[in-house]
Amino acid sequence: MSSWKLLVEGKDDQDFFNAFCNLVIGENKIDIFPPKALNENSGDGWSNLISNLPLLLSQLKNGDTEKLGIILDADYPPENSGGFHERYKKVTEKLAEVGYKIPTKPKLQKGDIFNHSDGLPNIGLWIMPDHKNNDMLESFVESLITDTTQASLLQHADKSINKLPVKLFNTQLHTSKAKVFTWRAWQEKPGSSLAGALYKNILDRSKASDFEAWLTHTFK
């Protein structure tokens, strides 16, 4: 087990960021955990991620964790304490409670790395999709779809969703998710994972330079 840890919202995020970290940082250098993997009595999702932060913070204190990164979705206000600034506040309040120095403003689009007043390891924070705007991981994925064929499939998925006779999902919160899941269904292997799309270069990592820089600095 690695002492470098990345906390994410759920299993799909775990698989995607495991692939991303393997490509950027190196194979198996970082252990990626959704909340339920840390605490079997916990569920996944952003609120459980935040409620389980004290467990990882205690591991920083005793040396079991050497480096820590946190990734969660911004989602949208006013739903469920959503929105970039509200989610940023929720996380940083927990960090401030144990002595991490929080700047007056987040480093928009660059990601944040927080220092501790007593010299504990730094903690990195990135809020999807771009550490600035409201939305989620799937919007970040959309920004990496640049190939002409793949982009045309994504555009058609968007048009198809707009023409649905009934939309049972929350259109503000989950349109991006619906679009990317539809796009995945139309791949050579229907339902192919986002991790697989990374490994096959279907997703263009060059469009994620700010995120890659944050990830590299968090785990340098």
TrEMBL record:
Pfam families: DUF3226 (PF11536)
Protein's name according to its UniProt entry: DUF4276 family protein
Protein source organism: Methylomonas fluvii
